[in-house]
Design a protein that fits this description.
heterodimer; A: mainly alpha; 8 helices; about 50% helix; elongated; disordered N terminus; B: alpha+beta; Rossmann fold; 11-stranded mixed β-sheet; about 25% strand; coiled coil (chain A)
Chain lengths: ~290, ~325
């Protein structure tokens, strides 16, 4: 509710002051003003009912005035409305207006009066367009704020849950690893005890879950020369037209930098090395 | 427009017969807006909406003024009310010192208005609203609380400027004579006249006046109901009708009802009314009492001690040496 503190303070004060006298009706002094009762201030009041009613007759519109001139509806409030309860009070006003409007609309409809504004009727409104724009902006920002708060809350919850799930997974993984190691140890122990007999039936059921089959390992493979840096994996497709003769003429191809390397073969290869001592002596002289 | 002229021509004779009476200072008793003459107005009857009496024309004109030294909040409230009532005229500020009553009466006559809403602001804090019917009519003075203007962004509704409002009252307006008078005056002031020049055709907002806790509460709602035609609500549309608050909002506390306009014999005083000055004075007195009470309490305590002296304490000298 927009700041109702002031109004509440005032209404509340008045209620406090006259709580004791709230049941006492206004004094029925039918005579003219001037009659004072000294008891309490609330009974001091003047109330000239006759004159009021007379004047009412004077100023009132004629009794049989068309309802179309007045457009008034009466609505029964029902029980007593608590002033200090904002929501209840506003609700009471709302229901009064709603009920009244329903009755009025039924009347208007029966009178076949054109009373509903068509959507394309453009005329000056009581609040300017700029003002309505501001209102719209405010409503949108409020909506956005609420949504963001909700999202943040959801994210927090999700994070909590995700953390729990993650912890669970980690635990599971650790357990599995432990189990695997244990099972290998057990199998080894069994083998030891069994004396390494061939054709064991208890091949450890090492589960390789988590590994995608048998991956190609480049390190130790049969039939691959140690100098082969590709580990025997480099594919040699079908040899094309005079591949061999070209190879012999222009060399074998492959990586450029592999020609002069210290491999096992070249270390023990002294073919290109001629006469050690004589070479140095010759150089020294010249 | 032609239709309007035609209607004014037909009852011209009847109106002519009434006019000299209307303009005379002393009105005939009981009615302001024409005689109940069935015979010569039989021709006028078909032109009107089926009433057998003299055509009732709501010629209400409201003058809206304020006093000097009015604050922005109340000035905006005044402007909002001005925009709600197309049959209202705004006038410049009125010096609020002496002879306020007569000055305003003269102003009313000058502008030829039949009622007045005068916003009087005192001490730049309290707003009093006078509702007055012009020539010799009663006047009611209210204290205005809980003002929310249309500017507030929480009041999101909007309606046509100048469209005629539907007015709803709670039934406790009919319980007591002074409330009946209030209701009649509110109806006459706030209901836009039917054929007013600035009145727009449709009905898209509703006023709600209710009496709660001896105060008159005012709310203004925009009506939004699903409809495709302009004279018929969609089936079941009445149940889907929603009201959106447009504003402004205020709460009136009746103080006094006077017999004349801006003065005259007092006919009603609100027994539960406490002026805001008194409330403020009361609060201050309560606060001021704090210090006096403290002093009194001290004196009382001293007296008490003097009367009932304590016995000499055995252990009083125990730690004295150190």
């Amino acid at each position: 509710m927009v700041g109702l503190a002031r109004e509440e303070a005032l209404a509340h004060d008045e209620v406090i002051m006259d709580d004791a006298d709230s049941d006492v009706e206004v004094s029925d002094s039918e005579d003219d003003s001037g009659e004072e009762a000294q008891a309490t201030p609330s009974e001091n009041a003047i109330y000239n009912k006759v004159a009021i009613l007379e004047k009412l007759e004077d100023i009132a519109w004629p009794k049989n005035v068309d309802w179309m001139h007045k457009l008034t509806i009466e609505h029964d409030q029902g029980g007593k409305v608590d002033v200090n309860d904002d929501l209840a009070r506003e609700l009471a006003f709302y229901t009064q207006a709603l009920d009244g409007t329903r009755q009025a609309f039924e009347k208007l409809q029966s009178m076949k009066v054109r009373f509903l504004r068509p959507t394309d009727y453009y005329a000056e409104m009581v609040k300017t367009d700029a003002h309505m724009h501001k209102i719209k902006g405010r409503l949108l920002s409020e909506k956005r704020r609420i949504e963001e708060a909700e999202e943040r809350k959801k994210a927090r919850e999700a994070k909590k849950i995700a953390k729990e799930v993650q912890a669970e997974k980690n635990k599971q993984r650790a357990k599995d690893k432990k189990e695997q190691i244990e099972s290998v140890k057990k199998w080894r122990k069994q083998r030891q005890q069994g004396g390494f007999a061939k054709g064991n039936d208890d091949v450890p059921d090492l589960n390789f879950e988590g590994e995608e089959g048998f991956k190609q390992s480049k390190k130790k493979r049969p039939g691959v020369s140690p100098g082969d840096r590709s580990g025997g994996l480099a594919k040699r497709g079908k040899e094309g037209k005079n591949r061999r003769s070209r190879d012999a003429k222009f060399g074998h191809g492959g990586r450029k930098g592999l020609k002069k390397q210290n491999t096992a073969e070249t270390t023990n290869d002294f073919r290109s090395y001629k006469g050690g001592e004589s070479q140095t002596k010759k150089r020294k002289r010249s | 427009m032609a239709k309007k002229r035609k209607r004014t021509d037909v009852p011209a004779e009847a109106a002519g017969a009434e006019k000299p009476d209307d303009s005379a200072p002393e009105r005939p008793p009981r009615t302001l807006f024409g005689f109940k003459e069935p015979a010569p107005d039989a021709e006028a009857a078909p032109a009107e909406a089926g009433s057998a009496v003299a055509p009732f024309r709501n010629k209400e004109k409201v003058l809206i003024t304020c006093s000097r030294r009015i604050t922005y909040r109340y000035r905006h409230l005044m402007q909002d009310i001005l925009s709600l009532l197309p049959h209202a005229k705004k006038d410049s500020k009125v010096e609020s010192k002496q002879s306020k009553g007569s000055a305003l009466n003269e102003l009313l006559e000058l502008r030829s208005c039949s009622s007045c809403l005068f916003f009087e602001c005192r001490k730049q804090k309290d707003l009093y609203l006078w509702m007055v019917k012009s020539p010799g009519g009663p006047s009611i003075k209210f204290l205005v609380n809980a003002v929310h203007t249309m500017e507030e962004l929480k009041l999101t509704g909007n309606h046509l400027k100048g469209s005629r409002p539907l007015i709803t009252f709670s039934t406790n307006f009919d319980e007591q004579p002074h409330w009946k008078l209030v209701k009649e005056m509110i109806t006459q002031i706030f209901a836009t006249p039917k054929d007013h020049r600035k009145a727009k055709p449709f009905h898209d907002h509703v006023f709600a006046f209710s009496i709660v806790d001896g105060h008159v509460w005012f709310r203004n709602y925009q009506i939004s109901v699903p409809h495709n035609e302009i004279d018929k609500v969609d089936k079941g549309g009445l149940d889907k009708m929603t009201l959106i608050e447009v504003g402004p909002r205020f709460c009136l506390n009746p103080i006094k009802i006077f017999g004349g306009s801006f003065g005259g014999p007092t006919w009603y005083e609100n027994p539960y009314y406490i002026s805001p000055n008194q409330i403020r004075a009361l609060e201050k007195r309560q606060k001021a009492g704090k210090y006096a009470k403290k002093v009194k309490a001290k004196v009382r305590r001293k007296m008490h001690e003097m009367e009932n002296t304590l016995e000499p304490d055995e252990f009083a000298e125990l730690w004295k040496g150190e």
